[in-house]
Amino acid sequence: MIGIVDYGMGNLFSVSKALERLHADYLITSDKHKLLAADALILPGVGAFRDAMDQLPADTIQQFAASGKPLLGICLGMQLLFESSEENGFTKGLGLLPGSVRRFPGKTNDGTAYKVPHMGWNRLEFIQDSPLLTNLEEDYVYFVHSYFVSAENSPVTLAKTDYHEQVAAVVGRDHIFGMQFHPEKSSKLGMALLGNFLKIAAERKAVR
Amino acid sequence: MTLTKRIIPCLDVKDGRVVKGIQFVQLRDAGDPVELARFYDQQGADELVFLDISASVEGRKTMVEVVKAVASQLAIPFTVGGGINTLEDMKKILRAGADKVSLNTAAVENPGLIKQGADFFGSQCIVVAIDAKFDPDIDTWRVYTHGGRKATEKTVLDWAREAAELGAGEILLTSMDSDGEKNGFDLKLTKAVSEAVTIPVIASGGAGNAEHFAQAFEKGKADAALAASIFHYKETSVQEVKSYLREKGVTVR
């Protein structure tokens, strides 16, 4: 059973429908005990970082992460896994991955303005082996975000993309994973990435 | 930088059915939003826009069901516009599975709605649609509302800037002068708006062939381009437009 964390934000429906297309059992819930009992958790997210941290059952997610079961943050949900964000001033995150979230400056070093949010289909570049990327090929995925985690010098970056900055697109360490783009909206590669996460969840469950 | 230019088919929905002469004989049901969405997805559409043109409360309720059905079938993003007047309306549509909502008349009449929506859902969910028509008296484009029937006091460039400041994540810019003419997008308008704001601009109105899309991106500086009839009437396909763009050196998925 995959638990989808319901904290009043985020597009739960599109994530859950993607799981249905993959024939996965899931439960959308905010109930602490049900979340902790899940084989894996997905933390979706659309909206603002601070509001999300206010709404989030942070203790439960941290407790779940400590249990060693797989956790996947999507979009804002990925950003929440990090230590902090500068969105609406400094806000502390869940601190499950090292690094911080900052806003696209909207300007290159030579002063050329570019558009924020980073919105649309951009290409992934795989940079580290991970069970999440097994048997997949680099392709386009769908991004919508104004804040990002820099891929430069980040040990947890598994795949990156280039939008005037080196953007951490897939992150992961041990059993904690995140995707900055929307896999549930990213056509074939997006669905395959979710499929790999489900596989990881099933393998961990078999070992336990 | 590998961010691609987006091609976006637009579908008009009335009481749960896609309307406006759609010529898709190979589909089981040419008016079914899900079938059409799937068709465009397979063609390589980057996104879809559904414009709800229902005039009734019942029709609006049906739209929520359409959104759920599309979201359950489709792995590409889609925007819903038409008849979204309140934060509650936005919640219903986004919770049903839409990725973005598009605000037009309601935002002009109540600009605070943009900020409300952006604060609650994030800017990326809020598209502000602007219907623009050139006014020689003021030598710039004027904003129209109510489906293009009502002129306002706002100029397009000022309104686009204001909308962006209020938190709009994207501008869907329709040229009323070009719409339906198939002579190409209004490149002057598109470029002016695209340079006035730092958020993405979707060009709309006037697409007649693949070259028009290339112009919208190269000369109009658009980030995405939307079209309805040329895709519906199969005058060209998303695939054809994309292979043309690739030849021209425009990055597409």
Structural overview:
The complex is a heterodimer of chains A (208) and B (253). Chain A has one domain (2-207): Class I glutamine amidotransferase (GATase) domain (Rossmann fold, 3-Layer(aba) Sandwich). Helices cover 27% and strands 28% of the residues of chain A. Chain A has six helices and 14 strands. Chain A is globular, with a radius of gyration of 16 Å. The mean pLDDT of chain A is 94. In chain B, 53% of the residues are buried. With 253 residues, chain B is α/β, with parallel strands linked by helices. Chain B is built from ten helices and eleven strands. Chain B has helices spanning 33-43, 57-73, 87-95, 105-109, 112-121, 156-166, 187-196, 210-218, 229-232, 238-247, and strands at 6-14, 17-19, 48-52, 78-81, 100-103, 126-135, 140-145, 150-155, 170-175, 201-204, 224-227. Classes of the chains: A alpha/beta (208), B alpha/beta (253). Chains A and B meet through helix 1, strand 8, strand 10 and helix 6 of A and helix 2 and helix 5 of B. Chain A: Keywords: Amino-acid biosynthesis, Cytoplasm, Glutamine amidotransferase, Histidine biosynthesis, Hydrolase, Lyase.
**Largest interface (C-beta under 8 Å):** A-B, 42 and 35 residues
Report the β-strand fraction of chain B as a percent range: 15-25%
Rounded mean pLDDT of chain A is 94
Unreliable spans of chain B:
none
Oligomer: heterodimer
Question: On the 0-100 scale, what is the average pLDDT of chain B?
Answer: 93
Subunit structure (chain B): Heterodimer of HisH and HisF.
InterPro entries (chain B): Aldolase_TIM, His_biosynth, HisF, IGPS_HisA/HisF, RibuloseP-bd_barrel
Main location (chain B): cytoplasm
Pathway (chain B): Amino-acid biosynthesis; L-histidine biosynthesis; L-histidine from 5-phospho-alpha-D-ribose 1-diphosphate: step 5/9
Q: Would you summarize the structure shown here?
A:
The complex is a heterodimer of chains A (208) and B (253). Chain A is of the alpha/beta class.
